[in-house]
Task: structure prediction
Amino acid sequence: MNRTQKRIVILFLALLFILIASSKTEWRVCSACGVQDYNTTIAGTTIEFLSQREYDEFGTHKKWQEKFGAKHEPHEWILLEEKTKDIIKVIDSL
Result:
């Protein structure tokens, strides 16, 4: 490998590291029905295939659907700081 190729590879790896380091995942949970939402952004742009909305089919969302019988819209999102601890607190409160 000559110098130019090495520089290109190093530049590519540095740019890849910067993109990964600038990524951010935001966790939210609906305070009414317990639906969890994960949004992953890279450089301020939401990446859909890395983001998802998770319906808890066996827990709080199922209980909510049995109680009210319909989909819950609009969701009342709570932004989570510490994912695991905050989700447990919100789900326990439902």
Q: What stands out?
A: The first strand starts at residue 23 and ends at 30. The beta strands are 23-30, 36-42, 45-46, 52-54, 77-80. The chain has a mean pLDDT of 80. The radius of gyration is 20 Å.
